[in-house]
Specification:
Elements lengths: L16 H22 L1 H13 L4 E2 L5 E5 L4 E4 L7 E3 L9 E4 L2 E4 L4 E2 L1 E6 L13 E6 L13 H4 L9 E2 L2 H10 L4 E4 L8 H12 L4 E6 L5 H10 L1 E7 L4 H8 L4 H12 L3 E8 L7 H15 L5 E5 L13 H14 L4 E4 L9 E2 L6 E6 L2 E5 L24
Parallel strand pairs: 9-11, 11-12, 12-13, 13-14, 14-15, 15-16
Antiparallel strand pairs: 1-6, 2-3, 3-4, 5-6, 7-10, 8-9, 17-18, 18-19
Helix pairs in contact: 4-5, 5-6, 8-9, 9-10
Bound molecules: iron/sulfur cluster (SF4).
The site of iron/sulfur cluster has 13 residues, from loops.
Length: 398
């Protein structure tokens, strides 16, 4: 039944039509913003369904579980957050939605960037050296690092209107057209796009492209197993600090990263570790000592460690890491026995060179993320002392 109001609502006094329209407009906008914020998941699903039905993807059944059928709760098993997701809601990374007790990837094929990049920039220094990888990314992340260097992608939801929409086969075709040797999922956290990564992998294998990712390493073993089985071999993995760093800033567990890195190495994958040294987050002695100890305990001396300088970014404003601090960690890592230690994000590029761990000969000189000198034998040995040098895949040296 329609009931006529006797008194107009506040702001709707007669005689002011323009004002009424303005107020009504503002009210509608407020409602929309509220709806967007609190019902984002459902809105995303509707928009995707409307415009990109074919790009919605049901997540593989071994990467989620029914948590409580009656209350319509599912548990995502893609990463170690293991979000329990209510009906029509998304998990922490905004990419997975529970629709009627099933888990859907709602960011499938919605890319935030595509760009050919040298593999050295990942950094992966010993993996297909001097090659190019078509690098791609989506939206969102399973961590919220206040110092995020790619916050404009990682702190964003996967919206259709701002994305580059590409089927896996289209992405692979682009890589071939651009004469790339491989593919690399990077910029935001790739493992939260596992459905897309697996489909891209299947396509890429047909064309002999290598598959690599730059990751925070927080995926479950279930996801990791699938990535490895699909043919992902190159993993540049962030270690964000010691257990205290993960507890205080990320709500996670540091040991998971080393467990996963070991799992990759045991299955013929390749790993390089990246440690962004951030003042007051992960730069004190016990913290870096823990990282060095775990590196040697889980991975071994021939797995490279990249020590990178931090610069203020996004919500974190401490001044850049002092160079002396980076040098101290570098010396400690070398002294402890890690054979390939690099310092990145500083002007002095000599810390990007590879020297023979046994005799000190300069083996690979890198400038501007390109190999400019290559002094390693065909069977990956130091030409002076014959020490075996860790190289994964074919080098692309002229
Ligand atoms: S992948 Fe996303 S939804 Fe799934 S557990 Fe991780 S953060 Fe949660």
């Amino acid at each position: 039944m329609f009931v006529r109001r006797r008194t107009p609502p506040p702001g709707f006094e007669p005689g002011s039509r323009a004002r009424q329209a303005r107020i009504l407009g503002r009210a509608i906008l407020r409602r929309l913003v509220c709806f967007y914020d609190f019902r984002f998941g459902f809105l995303m699903f509707s928009i995707n369904l409307l415009f990109r039905g074919s790009f919605l993807k049901l997540v593989a059944s071994d990467l989620w579980r029914i948590y409580d059928g009656e209350r319509k709760l599912v548990k995502c098993m893609v990463c170690e957050r293991k979000c329990v997701i209510a009906d029509k809601k998304t998990g922490f990374c905004w990419n997975y939605m529970n629709i009627d007790n099933k888990l859907y990837d709602i960011g499938y094929g919605l890319l935030s960037a595509i760009e050919p990049r040298p593999i050295e920039i990942k950094p992966l220094f010993h993996y297909y050296p001097n090659s190019w990888a078509l690098t791609f990314s989506g939206w969102g992340c399973n961590f919220r690092c206040p110092w995020c260097q790619n916050y404009h992608l990682s702190w964003e939801k996967p919206l259709v209107n701002k994305s580059i929409k590409l089927e896996p086969s289209e992405l692979v075709r682009k890589a071939i057209e651009l004469k790339q040797q491989g593919l690399c999922a990077s910029f935001n956290e790739p493992s939260i796009h596992i459905s897309y990564l697996l489909d891209v992998g299947e396509e890429a294998k047909k064309h002999n492209l290598y598959l690599s990712i730059v990751t925070n390493g927080y995926m479950t073993i279930y996801s990791l197993k699938k990535l490895l089985e699909t043919g992902y071999t190159g993993f540049s993995i962030d270690i964000k600090g010691c257990p205290e760093t993960y507890r205080k800033f990320l709500g996670g567990y540091a040991e998971v990263i080393y467990r996963n890195a070991r799992y990759i190495l045991d299955r013929n994958g390749y790993v390089e570790m990246v440690y962004l040294v951030i003042p007051k987050v992960n730069d004190w002695r016990e913290c870096y000592q823990w990282i060095i100890d775990k590196h040697l305990e889980y991975l071994g001396e021939d797995i490279p460690l990249h020590i990178n300088r931090y610069y203020p970014m996004y919500k974190y404003n401490e001044p850049p890491t002092p160079i002396e601090e980076l040098l101290e960690i570098y010396r400690e890592a070398r002294k402890a026995g890690i054979e390939y230690v690099y310092i990145g994000n500083i002007l002095d590029e000599t810390f990007q060179d590879t020297k023979c761990p046994k005799c000190g000969k300069l083996l690979i000189k890198r400038r501007g993320y390109r190999v400019v000198e290559w002094n390693i034998t065909r069977d990956n040995r130091c030409p002076r002392c014959n020490h075996k040098i860790s190289i994964y895949g074919k080098p692309f040296i002229n």
